[in-house]
Amino acid sequence: MNAEQAYAELVQHCKETATLRSCADLLGWDERTYLPPQGASHRGEQLALLARLVHERLTTPRLGELLTAVEGSAFTHPAESVSAATIREVRRTYDRAVKIPASLVQELARVTTQAQQVWQQARKNNDFASFRPWLEKVVALKQQEAQAVGFATVPYDALLDEYEPGATTGEITRLFATLRRELTPLLQAILASGRQARAEILAREYPVDRQQTFGQGAAAAIGFRFDAGRLDVTTHPFCSGIGPGDCRITTRYNPHHLNEAFFGILHEAGHGLYEQGLDPEHFGCAPGTAASLGIHESQSRLWENQVGRSRPFWEHFYPRAQELFPQALADVSLAVFLFAINEVKASFIRVEADEATYNLHIILRFELEQALISGDLKVSEVPGAWNEKFRQSFDLTPPTDTLGCLQDIHWSGGGIGYFPTYTLGNLYAAQFMAQARQDLPGLDDDFRGGSFTRLTGWLREKIHREGHRRSAGALCERVTGRPLQTAPLMAYLKQKYESLYEVTV
Ligand code: ZN
Fold it and tell me: How far is the CA of 425 from the centre of ligand 1 (A)?
């Protein structure tokens, strides 16, 4: 088989696999938005069948033959070319897929489905004991998975690689240690400042239909295309990039709180802009695929926080908010509103955390899951270890496991190695934004005028269109000239909070 034929077949194979997968994505989106409850069981059958077909295509020996035929050919040069990136990523996912025995894949699917159900009840009843045997099973299976996949330094690397290809445990450990060291004094200064935001203004009446209008308008303003996407309602918001021209975002509305839906929509629209910005020509291949979960999260955090919680953004949007929600906001000044949406507070729940405390929640989980996978921490010791670490970070002890180690769905679903991508996303977002400000002087004036096209265009060109031609770390170096660092995020946080809380750190 010559390399030309092999490469053409390889690309065709990838595109068809991605198309099949997009059918599952669409069914998955429907399952979480409009599926009538009685249809759940049949939907499960549909998704299981598609998952099996996708897995067969990812592990077919034919793929191995095609890879052998193209590796070492001219298609692998230069390293960042479309063909080289495509081949490299197919090799990575193929190796990973064939190394994990089918029996382990099935067992993981079976155990995590049940573990998630048990976890839901356990969280509701504050009953870690009932969840413990299931978490033990999940951890044991993930340890087996890590051994099967193989790793350079520690088993956790093998799990991390699924979500953040190219990142290593060692590198993240160093980055997070620096971040924690720098965040702690900032947080202490904020909490000791005595300044209080009027958070209650966000918990007034915000009619749902008006929130819909407001959120949809903001998503459109930052560039989310509604002729190539949708916004619907769900319980746990997500973004699903079905394929070229079709990206679905979701949110949930709380009539007694503005933040949840509004910042949720900005967040998901940020993910959506990334999906809509991928090159459709390379759908199914690395250059038309997201670089990593960390990069994906950087796009959502950039819009939600770096832009969406900034003063210039609200100088444009606040008059509109006051018009739409006169009862809630007519007597509230912009300064009071800005302080409220940027309030810092030590809280037990990660998803409710602000920008100053959020990453400490992630670092705690990153440390615990590494210890679980290495065997240094037993599952039975998780509640105690969690509470101890929480106390060290926040000087608070969770009163229940529901507010502690039972709060997140990730571990029950087998998503060990996923958490660090959230903080990597925050770090990448800050570093990208600092670079965008350098490359595009006067960005804040754009925002004040309600224009986001220069920033969206910059992100599209520098990040979205690059897809996964290179690793997340290499993409960051290419865009910003430096490897990922904590300095841009810390500079951003200090600037914001020193003025809001009148502290100096
Ligand atoms: Zn996200």
Answer: 9
In the chain, % of residues over pLDDT 90: 97
pLDDT at 252: 96
163-172 burial by CB neighbour count: b if 16+ within 10 A, else e?
bbbbbbbeeb
Task: Give 248's strand partners.
Answer: 230, 240
Pairing of strands 239-243, 229-233: unpaired
CA of 114 to the centre of ligand 1 (A): 25
162 within domain boundaries: no
For residue 199, give the amino acid letter. Answer: A
Q: Are residues 281 and 189 in the same domain?
A: yes
Place of tokens 């500079």: 491
Please calculate the CA angle 75-274-432 and round it to the nearest 5 degrees: 90
Report how far residue 319's alpha carbon sits from residue 317's, in angstroms, rounded to the nearest whole number: 6
Residue 301 CA to ligand 1 centre (angstroms): 7
The reply to whether 153 falls in a domain is: no
- Regarding whether 201 and 101 lie in a shared domain, the answer is no
Q: Which domain holds residue 63?
A: 3-137
Handedness of CA 265, 266, 271, 272 (dihedral sign): positive
Q: Are residues 288 and 436 in the same domain?
A: yes
Whether the Cβ atoms of residue 468 and residue 85 lie closer than 8 Å to each other: yes
Structure tokens given for 359: 């990453």
State phi, psi for 496 to the nearest 5 degrees.
Answer: -65, -50
pLDDT tens for residues 21-41?
A: 999 999 999 999 999 999 999
φ/ψ of 248, rounded to 5, equals: -110, 125
Angstrom distance (rounded) from CA 351 to CA 457: 29
Q: How many domains does the chain have?
A: 2
> Is 143 within the bounds of a domain?
no
Q: Looking at the structure, tell me whether residues 375 and 436 fall in a common domain.
A: yes
CATH of the domain at 342: 1.10.1370.30
On the question of pLDDT at 181 being above 90, the answer is yes
Rounded Cα–Cα distance for residues 89 and 472 (Å): 13
Rounded CA gap, 26 and 70, in Å? 32
| Residue among 164, 268, 275, 355 flagged as catalytic | 268
